[in-house]
Automatic annotation (TrEMBL):
The lineage of its organism: Eukaryota, Metazoa, Chordata, Craniata, Vertebrata. Residues 7-18 have a biased composition (Low complexity). It comes from the Eukaryota. Transmembrane segments: none annotated. Its main location: cytoplasm. This is Alpha-catulin. Belongs to the vinculin/alpha-catenin family. The gene is Ctnnal1. The keyword Cytoplasm applies. Keywords: Cytoplasm. InterPro entries: Alpha-catenin/vinculin-like_sf (IPR036723), Alpha_catenin (IPR001033), CTNNAL1 (IPR030045), Vinculin/catenin (IPR006077).
């Protein structure tokens, strides 16, 4: 999570200029961050301008107009901030200070761009945009900091709305718990339904706005609980009212209310970023995350032999192997999987011992032979961990697939409904025992799946599923017991139906979750998208069809490991550049992201991971990569028609370079080779050419982004600030979306004027 506006989202470029906002401000939502990114980018460009000795009167006057426009835009922004402060007295003092700072910054920028000071800087004591870079940086920093403060303070109002909405829901829930008549219940539940709808809208918008994917997943889980529990609360409460002396009905109803309160509390924890009694959240470490961290440390030895201790590595492996006991100790793990996991655990210890031995020798004497031995030891250790990862994945997913298939007929639930209507208490007791067994199986399945889920959001989904089975199982039992005691009760029958549907729904969700977990394992989604264009055997390219699939051995993987790491770094750079584009649907961005995803899958191949299992897979991926590059070149040609004449030659030159590289890669891919050595040479050439194309892409994306902004800035104009509407804050309707913050707070016009200033300076 970002701790300042200068976050990894693209604002970080400001740090090199000394530009930054208040470090105490924490940007938790995309709307605030996305509003700030263009502003920071433009201000950074402004303060990094290149001074030119000759400045025409026309340029000076244009700069003055822009400076005055920025000051006016800031003034409107401040007016809105002050209106927000008046509506929310608890924020008035902080908001007022931020508004004063923003106004001061706007006035300073107007002074810096005053034509009198610009024309004769030496005759005036005032700093100008051309004479004193420190003054410019100071004014820019003050402007950014104050704007950020106002946005973050406005965001607090959204949080306040959610808390207020939650409090309304809780108060109405308390009334629902105490009602004693149907008429009163219907009246209060109608109010409760409206309040839940409002709460759902507010939290849904907030969920979509959160930057932290882990928090987003937790919010989704809590909202899912509230959605399902609303219907449960209705039928459970009606059943309790119909049968007030029934203990199982009361237990059933109390369970629903308790679960809803926990979910409401979790939503507030996420929104306010706090936990009761100040305790920190300690999520259990999964085997996957442990292996990922362990491998990163091991591979880091290639660059630095001294950055961690052998004890540190040994401890990390011990923790991973302790978690594998969840599999080996489970009654549901097959004998074959258990034996393989134990065998691989033993092998991992041996590989680490060998690695540590070579590592310690290399620290004392860096000979070529020792470094080669170290590389082999690193690869063997990582390969062993990959095999362990595959084994636990296979154990968890095969168990899940078997259980989900076995329970698809819902025979136990059907039997509970039938025996409940018959009033057969003995049969109900028998089937509740079977349901309890089923619940234990599914809970264990969720625990094992969490270890192999691959991403934090999926881990959270597994934990949520485990909780759902743990809670819903006993609730079905209490609902079935109530029906058995009152077999003619329609409401008791309806209540059992609702809880059974929740169970069936969760089983259906588990099937989808299992597919997602398998997708992550195969490299089809997760922390980074991987392009899906793998050939089916015997289809696609005729040249590839005749190739015999080859897997690289340890030595060959060692040779391309460095090249693979370079490719990995380039994909990160490209992803960073594409995120800076305001229009994510732009054709250039789309092709750039596609190429980055394919390059990443090729990087995974160099590690022996991902979807590309053989050299044939790699060659096909390289061919698709070259095709995507050709499409990008076409998009660049189309874009060149929109840019100014001065910039077009450079863009066309880069596009021609890309076309040439694409052709070279296609020739390499289609070249026929025989023998292991020749195949490896071809692999090396494909990855090398892919790396070169990614290097060019890293240069192309910022160039196009700059030209696009420059083109827009040249057509920029002053937009009138929208009128302040009191009900925007009060009602909460889309009040915290990026558009609301940008338009209502007058940020759009501010961006336009700073962009105009940047454009004038670059001419």
């Amino acid at each position: 999570m970002a701790t300042s506006p200068c976050s990894s989202s693209g604002v970080s470029s400001s740090s090199s200029s000394g530009l930054g906002a208040d470090a105490g401000l924490e940007i938790r939502t995309r709307s605030v961050e996305q509003t700030l990114v263009p502003l920071v980018s433009q201000i950074t460009t402004l303060i990094n301008h290149k001074d030119k000795p000759k400045r025409s009167d026309k340029t000076l006057q244009a700069i003055q107009r822009v400076g005055q426009a920025v000051s006016l835009a800031v003034g409107r922004f401040v007016t809105v901030g002050e209106a927000i402060a008046n509506e929310n007295r608890e924020l008035k003092e902080e908001m007022s200070v931020a508004c004063i700072e923003a106004r001061r910054a706007g006035e300073t920028i107007a002074q810096l761009t005053d034509v009198a000071n610009l024309d004769h800087p030496e005759s005036d004591s005032h700093i100008t945009i051309f004479t004193d870079k420190t003054g410019v940086v100071k004014a820019a920093r003050l402007l950014l900091s104050s704007v950020t403060k106002v946005l973050v303070l406005a965001d607090r109002i959204v949080i306040k709305q959610i808390i207020t909405s939650r409090n309304k829901v809780l108060a109405t829930m308390e009334q629902l718990e105490k009602v004693s008549s149907f008429q009163e219940f219907v009246q209060i539940f109608s109010q409760f339904g409206n309040e839940m709808v409002e709460f759902a809208h507010l939290t849904g918008d907030r969920q979509n706005d959160l930057k932290d994917e882990k928090k987003k997943a937790r919010m989704a889980a809590s909202r899912a609980v509230l959605e399902k529990c609303t219907m449960m609360l209705l039928t459970a409460s009606k059943t309790c009212l119909r049968h007030p002396d029934c203990e199982s009905a009361r237990i059933n109803k109390d369970g629903v209310f308790h679960r809803m309160r926990l979910a409401l509390e979790q939503v507030i924890e996420i929104v306010t970023d706090s936990r009761p009694n100040g305790e920190n959240e300690m999520a259990p470490i999964s085997i996957y995350s442990g292996i990922r961290e362990f491998k990163n440390k091991v591979e880091g030895l290639r660059e630095n032999l001294y950055f961690l201790s052998k004890e540190n590595l040994s401890t990390m492996l011990e923790v991973i192997l302790e978690h594998t006991e969840d599999f080996t100790d489970s009654a549901y793990t097959s004998h074959e999987h258990r034996e393989h996991i134990l065998e691989l655990s033993k092998q991992a210890k041996m590989e680490l011992e060998q690695l540590v031995s070579v590592w310690m020798q290399a620290q004392n004497q860096k000979t070529k032979d020792l470094m080669e031995d170290l590389e082999v030891a690193i690869l063997k250790t990582c390969q062993c961990m990959n095999e362990l990862k595959r084994e636990v994945h296979s154990a968890a997913t095969s168990l899940a697939a078997d259980l989900l298939k076995y329970h698809t007929d819902h025979m136990v639930l059907k039997a509970l409904k039938i025996t409940g209507v018959e009033g057969n208490l003995e049969a109900v007791a028998e089937y509740t025992c079977k349901l309890s067994e089923q619940k234990e199986q599914l809970v264990e399945m969720c625990r094992l799946l969490r270890h192999v889920s691959g991403t934090e959001p999926l881990e959270i989904t597994c934990i949520h599923a485990e909780d759902t089975f743990q809670v819903t199982g006993p609730q079905i039992i209490s609902a079935a017991e109530t029906l058995a005691l009152h077999p003619s009760s329609k409401i008791a029958k309806e209540n059992l139906e609702v809880f059974c549907e929740a169970w069936e729904s969760q089983l259906s969700d588990m099937s989808m979750l299992l597919r997602e977990i398998n997708d992550v394992f195969e490299g089809r989604r997760g922390e980074k998208r991987v392009y899906l264009s793998l050939p089916r055997p015997g289809k696609h390219n005729a040249n590839l069809k005749t190739l015999k699939p080859v897997k690289l051995d340890t030595e060959e993987q060692a040779k391309i490991a460095k090249l693979g790491l370079e490719l990995h770094l380039l994909t990160s750079d490209v992803d960073s550049e594409t995120q800076k584009w305001e229009d994510q649907e732009n054709e250039i961005v789309q092709h750039g992201q596609g190429m980055s995803s394919m390059a990443y899958s090729m990087y995974l191949f160099t590690r022996g991971e991902g979807l590309l299992k053989t050299t044939q897979d790699l060659f096909h991926q390289a061919e698709i990569f070259a095709t995507e590059g050709t499409k990008l070149a076409s998009a660049l040609h189309a874009f060149s028609d929109q840019v100014h004449d001065d910039d077009k030659p450079l863009l066309l030159l880069e596009a021609e370079k890309l076309i040439s590289m694409c052709k070279q890669l296609q020739i390499t891919v289609k070249a026929s080779v025989q023998g292991k050595s020749a195949t490896f040479t071809k692999v090396d050439a494909c990855i090398l050419k892919t790396r070169n194309m990614m290097t060019l892409l890293c240069q192309l994306l910022p160039l196009c982004c700059k030209l696009l902004r420059k083109n827009k800035a040249g057509n920029g104009c002053l937009k009138p600030a929208p009128p302040w509407k009191e009900d925007r804050i009060r009602t909460g309707t889309n009040s915290h979306t990026p558009e609301w913050k940008a338009e209502t707070l007058g940020i759009k016009s501010l961006e336009n004027h700073v962009a105009n200033m940047t454009f004038l300076e670059s001419k």
